[in-house]
């Protein structure tokens, strides 16, 4: 893609020796950059050079992010660190919808909504990509009604837009319209390249739902595939790297852990989800009720007391009912 070549290219005739490369970080950088630019097919090409023409690997060109990356365990937090560094260099070339997706993946959909409210123009409201990403911001804030309104506007512009159709299916599912949702998922898969993948050999779950696979990149559909009783924790953890920005996915992951005897892991996941996404009612309600159940089982009254107080305030403030 000529745009990416222009953006990341450099003068090759001045090449000097390349500093030592951390190949693991280069691989991570390539993956994260493609997500930042919303380039699932990795069409971009990049090359970084020092003033003297020496080609720099990403671990040198982004040394600050690299040093932080080495000390972070989770992929999603590693991405956050690199996203901040990418913002410093490339934020000005992102379109608004790409900015919204950048905020979504970084677990700041509310910042995306603020951008829409403060910066959206009439032209943006005629852009199917912008409308789709706006709907997704509201979706990850668990405001399914507003998300539905925006995605219908997007599909009115382009009824075949794949990202918009996936977003609609996700929204319908979480609004309880499962039959319509599953019908749409099926149609999208029928139109995808999944048949070619199947013909060439065994197809893996991640091939279907991953960002780079681009068959059906949906956290909601991923949960339905993971509900198979043969699925083990390693697969949940692998798919979580794709959808940690989705409170629905994280809550369902917590349920799976609790149902499989991993109570501490399950509670921890519900708590972190409720902290980052206090709008997501199932995470908040079930974190609160699960803690009370564990307290009863252990005959104690003070486990996770600060969290119980925090969750109680959220439930009361939002007028939700406590689980029985």
Report on the structure:
- The chain has 324 residues and is an all-alpha fold.
- It has 3 domains: 1-92, no CATH class; 95-191, Tetratricopeptide repeat domain (Serine Threonine Protein Phosphatase 5, Tetratricopeptide repeat), CATH 1.25.40; 246-324.
- Helix content is 65%, strand content 1%.
- The protein contains 19 helices and 2 strands.
- Helix 6 (96-105) runs antiparallel to helix 7 (109-119), helix 10 packs antiparallel against helix 11 (178-190) and helix 18 packs across helix 19 (305-318).
- It is globular.
SSE topology:
Blueprint: H1 2-8, H2 23-36, E1 48-49, E2 55-56, H3 58-61, H4 63-69, H5 75-90, H6 96-105, H7 109-119, H8 128-140, H9 144-157, H10 162-174, H11 178-190, H12 194-199, H13 205-209, H14 219-226, H15 233-243, H16 247-259, H17 263-276, H18 281-298, H19 305-318
Antiparallel strand pairs: 1-2
């Amino acid at each position: 893609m000529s745009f990416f070549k222009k953006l990341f290219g450099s003068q090759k005739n001045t090449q000097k020796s390349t500093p030592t490369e951390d190949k693991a970080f280069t691989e991570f950088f390539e993956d994260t950059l493609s997500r930042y630019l919303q380039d699932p097919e990795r069409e971009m090409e990049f090359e970084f050079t020092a003033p003297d023409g020496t080609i720099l690997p990403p671990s040198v060109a982004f040394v600050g992010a690299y040093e932080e990356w080495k000390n972070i365990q989770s992929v999603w937090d590693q991405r956050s660190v690199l996203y901040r560094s990418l913002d410093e260099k490339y934020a000005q070339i992102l379109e608004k919808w790409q900015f919204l997706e950048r905020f979504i993946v970084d677990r700041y959909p509310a910042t995306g909504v603020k951008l829409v409210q403060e910066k959206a123009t009439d032209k943006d409201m005629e852009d199917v990509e912008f409308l789709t990403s706006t709907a997704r911001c509201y979706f990850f804030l668990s405001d399914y009604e507003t998300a539905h309104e925006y995605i219908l506007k997007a599909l009115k512009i382009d009824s075949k837009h794949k990202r918009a159709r996936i977003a609609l299916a996700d929204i319908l599912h979480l609004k309880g319209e499962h039959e319509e949702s599953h019908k749409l998922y099926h149609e999208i898969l029928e139109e995808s390249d999944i048949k070619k993948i199947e013909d060439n050999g065994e197809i893996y779950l991640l091939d279907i739902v991953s960002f780079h696979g681009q068959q059906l990149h949906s956290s909601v559909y991923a949960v339905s595939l993971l509900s198979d009783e043969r699925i083990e924790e390693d697969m949940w953890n692998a798919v979580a790297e794709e959808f940690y920005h989705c409170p629905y996915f994280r809550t369902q992951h917590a349920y799976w852990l609790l149902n499989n005897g991993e109570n501490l892991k399950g509670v921890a996941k519900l708590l972190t989800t409720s902290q980052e996404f206090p709008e997501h009612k199932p995470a908040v309600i079930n974190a609160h009720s699960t803690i009370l159940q564990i307290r009863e089982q252990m005959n104690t009254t003070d486990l996770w007391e600060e969290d119980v107080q925090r969750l109680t305030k959220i439930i009361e403030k939002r007028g939700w009912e406590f689980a029985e």
